[in-house]
Amino acid sequence: MAAEPDANNAGNTRFIRTEPGAVTREVRVQSLGMRGATVWFTGLSGAGKSTIAIEVERRLVEQRIAAYRVDGDNLRAGLCSDLGFSPEDRARNVARAGEACTMLADAGIVVLASLVSPFRADRDRVRAVHASRGIPFFEAHVAVSLEVAEQRDTKGLYRRARAGEIADFTGIHQPYEEPLAPELLLESADSTIAQCVEQVLAHLQSAARS
Ligand code: ADP
Q: To bridge 135 with a disulfide, which of 11, 130, 163, 193 should be the other Cys (CB 3.0-4.6 Å)?
């Protein structure tokens, strides 16, 4: 009897070989003048990831630099709509977002990713994928205490989590593992939004020069 094919033919992936194409990263950078990078904003819900990313994107585009936001909440409405908030699903969510970032950044875009991404190991895998493809990756920890984030409660999620309406909420039911050596530390409780934005832009400028 013939072997039962697996439901989605996942075994077929062993016959696939990757196609590098004719345009190398160096040629793309030289020819288009676009270097590409990922700035990965991580932090508690309400820390200020999206607020900072939105303004950085606006400022870069104003300077005619291709920039694009990859927002965790937006991804969960599409590419990651099948995923929940268990540690396993969070790992998948971060990995998929990371893949999307590498593609955009490899194309020359400055990607501004904002995802809570609470687990260090998941973020480190995204860093490693970027490194393996030679794409600059900057981890930006948008740091606030849980008290400040909960006080802001911009989306009312902490209140709902405390009331038991939301499960698996970072900071309440699950830990947030702070980055140990982020390229950028944005202390959003002690700085203005404008100061955080300038800090990111200055880092990008100095990285582009080196
Ligand atoms: P996140 O994307 O991390 O969930 P948001 O950007 O949606 O957080 O919300 C952050 C809130 O904190 C906004 O209401 C913003 O105006 C406020 N805020 C105060 N100070 C700062 C700062 N320095 N940087 C970013 N946001 C700040």
A: 130
Domain locations along the chain: 32-209
- What spacing in Å lies between the alpha carbon of 34 and ligand 1's midpoint? 29
24 pocket-lining for ligand 1 (C-beta < 6 Å): no
User: 72 in ligand 1 pocket by Cβ < 6 Å?
Assistant: no
Rounded distance between C-alpha atoms, residue 54 and residue 189, angstroms: 18
pLDDT reading at 204 higher than 60: yes
Residue 174 CB neighbour total at 10 angstroms: 17
Q: What is the model's pLDDT at position 4? A: 55
Residue 55's Cα: distance from chain center in Å? 16
Determine contact, residues 171/44, Cβ cutoff 8 Å.
Answer: yes
**Which residues are catalytic, by number?**
114
Identify whether the C-beta of residue 142 lies closer than 8 Å to the C-beta of residue 99: no
Do residues 126 and 138 touch, judged by C-beta distance below 8 A? no
- Nearest C-alpha to atom 16 of ligand 1 is from which residue? 51
Give the pLDDT band of residue 14 (cuts 50, 70, 90).
Answer: confident
Strand-pair category, 110-114 with 184-187: unpaired
CATH number of 32-209: 3.40.50.300
Q: In whole angstroms, give the CA distance from residue 71 to residue 112.
A: 8
